[in-house]
Design a protein that fits this description.
By secondary structure, this protein is of the alpha+beta class. It has eleven helices and 26 strands. Strand 1 and strand 2 form a beta hairpin.
């Protein structure tokens, strides 16, 4: 996203021309703004020297890949919503909330709800997006418990508590799009206004400029205004109309239809804007981007994805293995004991002791690994056990990975190779048991 506090005071023309918006790219973005409705900058009072305002409106729709060509010319004006989402039906059709126009194949990823009874505006994720990725809403964030509570979506509010933007993690969004065989059409509109006594450094040769670029277009205007914001020299007519045909003393007064009104009267007067002359600079930009699906969908479609986390498996040439190669590896891995401390620092971590030097540990109850402690205090884990963990869990282990040293844990060898687990007890287990007795 662009800088929310640009240096508009130093160079208003550069700020108005919105080159930063033109250059937006989501190719490597971590977060995608699904919806944004907020004022980025508000400085001074409208119609006075020094006034600055910047506003942005972003909306998006989920478009099936086979319909993408039909949306080549669809722009922000067609996508942005002017009313609250709700179900709509007639005698022939029922459209669930989130449909774009009357096509249930095209959906808004965010459901926007407003109420006529002063309840606060509410933004929710489209149910198939939220439930499909198994997200859990916690306040204004959506987490994915299956990935150690990683934050996948977040709702940001303005100073008055109203929803201002909803951002979605790109990796998870593209996973969903892959499973749905769809893409996301992201449309952006922003405007920027500035008022000064004059803009002496302005290089425009006329009062209006236009610029087209790969993802949209920009329009700028320069005009004189009166202090207060009215166009300079503007004149107008005020028309006052009224009726005298209604007698308020009648027992049941009635207002006649305008077409049959017999006692209508009117008068008019001319008005002209006044106030000292100022200059107003305005910029408007319309942009759209396509967010394409990922090649695979490991979360929803359960596609197999080769892990990219490399573990050291020997000392001589610093050989490493990852993915299917690690799954085929029949040896063990070595880790510094600090990995246990990191695991236990996770909010859903578990540890279970089997013997004095063996047990299970993991960042979550469904991501546990059988470990052993060797004579140097290093942790041993079977390589193909590690390969079966999801990539996010492997990344937690790999930062503590070291080359083989001190041999294999004797008690782990007794359990995994000799099938005769050691008859020992971990001091941690003994301490807990004695505390319970006490």
């Amino acid at each position: 996203m662009p800088d929310q506090n640009p240096a508009f005071e130093k160079c208003p023309q550069t700020w108005i021309e919105e080159r930063d918006i033109e250059g937006l790219s989501f190719a490597k973005a971590t977060w995608i703004p699904l919806v944004v409705e907020k004022v980025d900058v508000l400085h001074g009072r409208f119609g006075t020297v020094g006034y600055r305002k910047a506003y942005q409106d972003i909306d998006s729709i989920i478009v099936p890949l086979d319909l993408q060509a039909e949306f080549a010319k669809v722009d922000w004006q067609s996508v942005t919503r002017n009313s609250s989402d709700s179900a709509w039906a007639n005698e022939k059709i029922f459209l669930p909330p989130g449909c774009y126009l009357e096509d249930p194949r095209v959906l808004y990823p965010v459901i926007q709800r407003s109420f006529e009874t002063d309840e606060p505006t509410q933004w929710d994720l489209l149910q198939e997006l939220e439930v499909g990725l198994q997200l859990f809403r916690r306040g204004d964030t959506w987490i994915r418990p299956d990935e150690n509570d990683v934050e996948v979506a977040k709702l940001e509010r303005d100073k008055d508590g109203r929803p201002a933007s909803l951002l979605f993690r790109t990796e998870h969004l593209r996973d969903y799009l892959c499973a749905k065989k769809a893409s996301l059409l992201l449309t952006i509109f922003t405007f920027r206004d500035a008022i000064e006594e004059s803009f002496p450094g302005l290089t425009w040769s006329s009062d209006q400029r236009e610029r087209r670029f790969a993802h949209g277009e920009w329009e700028g205007t320069f005009a004189d205004v009166h202090e207060g914001g009215e166009p300079y020299g503007i004149k107008g007519t005020v028309l006052h109309m009224w009726r005298e045909s209604v007698n308020p003393k009648d027992d049941v007064p009635e207002m006649p239809h305008p077409c049959v009104e017999t006692a209508a009267k009117a008068e008019s007067s001319s008005v002209e804007a006044t106030g000292r002359k100022l200059s107003a600079l305005r910029g408007r930009i319309w942009v759209k981007h396509w967010i394409q699906p990922a090649a695979k969908s490991p979360r929803i479609r359960r596609d197999k994805v080769e892990a990219r986390v490399h573990f050291q498996v020997e000392n001589q040439e610093q050989k490493t293995l990852a993915g299917s190669a690690l799954l085929d590896y029949r040896g063990w891995l070595w880790f510094k004991p600090s990995v246990i401390r990191q695991m236990l620092g996770e909010p859903k971590s578990h540890i279970k002791w089997f013997t004095q030097n063996t047990g299970e540990v993991g960042p979550a109850s469904n991501q546990m690994l059988h470990f052993g402690i060797n004579g140097l205090g290093l942790i041993n884990i079977l390589g193909y056990d590690m390969a079966q963990l999801p990539e996010w869990a492997q990344k937690m282990w790999v930062t503590h990975n070291v080359g083989p040293d001190g041999g294999l844990s004797e008690e782990l060898h007794m359990s995994q190779n000799l099938a005769r687990p050691a008859n020992t007890t971990a001091p941690e287990t003994m301490l807990w048991h004695n505390l319970q007795l006490l």
